[in-house]
C-alpha cells in the first residue's frame, strides 16, 4: 500500500433547534498520515491529544479494529501519525471526527469498499451523533434523521453563504455530561413548538433568508435553555455578536464553545471585537468546510500524488 493521508473536518452540531439532527463541517482538521510497516505504531504530532499507553488503547485504532472485525478482516500493521487542529471536548465533534478517521483507516487498510451510507451508519452507531458524523463525512451543512431500522437518512443544504465565528473557552465539557442535563421527555406542546422552530430554520436557510434563520437559531427550546447555565458568557456572546451584525449565535454541539453565524465578510471584524471582550477565549473566524472526509495518496515527502 502506498502511504496515504486521511483528513476529516471538525463539525458544529445542532445549530440551535436542529438538535441531534443538523450540523455543519468547519475548517479545522484531524489528519492521519498512514504508511505500512511491520509493526503497529501510533504517534501524536499535536500535544493536546489524549495520552495512551499502547497502540491497542488508542480510540482511533479501536474503531478501526472494530470496523475490520465486523467485516471479518484483520488490520495489517502500519504507522499512523495523528495531527489535530480540533480542540477536545469543546463541542467541535472531535470524537466523531476521530471515529470517522478510524472507520476510514480500516476501509483503506482492509479494502472494505465501504459506501458513504455504511460509513455514516457505523459512525453513528459508534459515536451516537449523526449531526456530527454526516457533516464530517460529506462537508457542508447536513440535515439527518435516523429511521426505525437505524438507517441514517440525510440531505445537504447547499451553501450557506455565511461567516462563522467560534468562541472556544479553556474549559472542557464532555458531551456525555452535557446530555445528562437535558430532560428525558418533552410534552407534546414543547416538542411541537421546538420542532416548528427547527423546521423554519431549515426552510429559511434553504431560501437564503439568514435573518429569519438567525432568529430561529436563537429560539431553540430542545437543548439550549437547559445547557445555557453551563456555558460561560452565553448571554453576553449572543447579545454582543447580534449588536455586531451576526444573524444569530448557538452552542456548538454540546458546548462549551459558541458559534455565531454572520453575513459574509463580517467574520474578521466580529472576531476582533470579541477577542477583546473575551481575552481568556480562543476566538476564531472559521470557514464552512465543503469537502468532508478526504483520502489522498502521498509520496515519501508527504506530497499529494492522487486522490
Ligand atoms: N484524535 C483523537 N484521538 C483520540 N481520542 C480522541 C480524539 N478526538 C477525540 N477523542 C476522544 O473524544 C473525547 C471528546 O469527545 P466528546 O466529549 O464527545 O467531545 P467533542 O466530540 O465535542 O470534542 C476526548 O476526550 C477523547 O477521549
Ligand atoms: N447533538 C449532540 C451533539 C454533540 O456534539 P459534540 O461536538 O459536543 O460532541 C448534542 O447536542 O449532545
TrEMBL record:
GO terms for molecular function: homoserine kinase activity. Residues 201-274 form the GHMP kinase C-terminal domain. It holds the Pfam family GHMP_kinases_C. The keyword Kinase applies. Its EC number is 2.7.1.39. ATP binds at residues 87-97. It is an enzyme of class 2 (transferase). It catalyses: L-homoserine + ATP = O-phospho-L-homoserine + ADP + H(+). Keywords: Amino-acid biosynthesis, ATP-binding, Cytoplasm, Kinase, Nucleotide-binding, Threonine biosynthesis, Transferase. Pathway: Amino-acid biosynthesis; L-threonine biosynthesis; L-threonine from L-aspartate: step 4/5. Residues 59-140 form the GHMP kinase N-terminal domain. It comes from the Bacteria. It is found in: Cytoplasm. NCBIfam families: thrB. Catalyzes the ATP-dependent phosphorylation of L-homoserine to L-homoserine phosphate. Belongs to the GHMP kinase family. Homoserine kinase subfamily. PANTHER family: HOMOSERINE KINASE (PTHR20861:SF1), HOMOSERINE/4-DIPHOSPHOCYTIDYL-2-C-METHYL-D-ERYTHRITOL KINASE (PTHR20861). This is Homoserine kinase. It comes from Virgibacillus kekensis.
Amino acid at each position: 500500500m502506498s502511504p496515504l493521508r486521511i483528513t476529516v473536518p471538525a463539525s458544529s452540531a445542532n445549530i440551535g433547534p436542529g438538535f441531534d439532527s443538523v450540523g455543519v463541517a468547519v475548517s479545522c482538521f484531524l489528519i492521519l498520515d498512514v504508511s505500512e510497516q511491520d509493526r503497529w505504531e501510533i504517534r501524536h504530532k499535536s500535544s493536546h491529544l489524549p495520552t495512551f499507553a499502547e497502540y491497542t488503547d488508542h480510540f482511533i485504532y479501536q474503531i478501526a479494529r472494530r470496523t475490520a472485525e465486523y467485516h471479518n478482516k484483520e488490520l495489517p500493521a502500519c504507522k499512523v501519525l495523528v495531527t489535530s487542529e480540533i480542540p477536545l471536548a469543546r463541542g467541535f465533534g472531535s470524537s466523531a471526527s476521530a471515529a470517522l478517521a478510524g472507520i476510514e483507516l480500516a476501509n483503506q487498510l482492509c479494502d472494505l469498499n465501504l459506501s458513504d451510507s455504511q460509513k455514516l451508519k457505523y459512525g453513528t452507531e459508534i459515536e451516537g451523533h449523526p449531526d456530527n458524523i454526516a457533516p464530517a463525512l460529506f462537508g457542508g451543512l447536513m440535515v439527518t434523521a435516523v429511521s426505525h431500522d437505524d438507517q441514517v437518512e440525510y440531505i445537504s443544504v447547499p451553501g450557506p453563504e455565511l461567516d462563522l465565528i467560534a468562541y472556544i473557552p479553556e474549559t472542557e465539557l464532555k458531551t456525555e455530561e452535557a446530555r445528562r442535563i437535558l430532560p428525558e421527555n418533552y410534552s407534546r406542546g414543547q416538542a411541537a413548538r421546538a420542532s416548528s422552530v427547527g423546521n423554519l430554520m431549515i426552510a429559511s436557510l434553504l431560501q437564503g433568508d439568514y435573518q429569519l434563520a438567525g432568529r430561529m437559531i436563537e429560539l431553540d427550546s430542545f437543548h439550549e435553555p437547559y445547557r445555557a447555565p453551563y456555558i460561560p458568557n452565553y448571554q453576553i456572546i449572543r447579545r454582543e455578536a447580534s449588536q455586531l451584525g451576526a444573524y444569530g449565535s448557538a452552542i456548538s454541539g454540546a458546548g462549551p464553545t459558541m458559534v455565531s453565524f454572520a453575513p459574509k465578510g463580517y467574520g474578521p471584524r466580529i472576531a476582533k471585537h470579541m477577542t477583546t471582550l473575551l481575552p481568556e477565549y480562543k476566538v476564531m473566524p472559521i470557514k464552512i468546510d465543503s469537502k468532508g472526509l478526504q483520502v489522498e495518496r502521498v509520496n515519501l515527502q508527504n506530497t499529494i500524488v492522487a486522490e
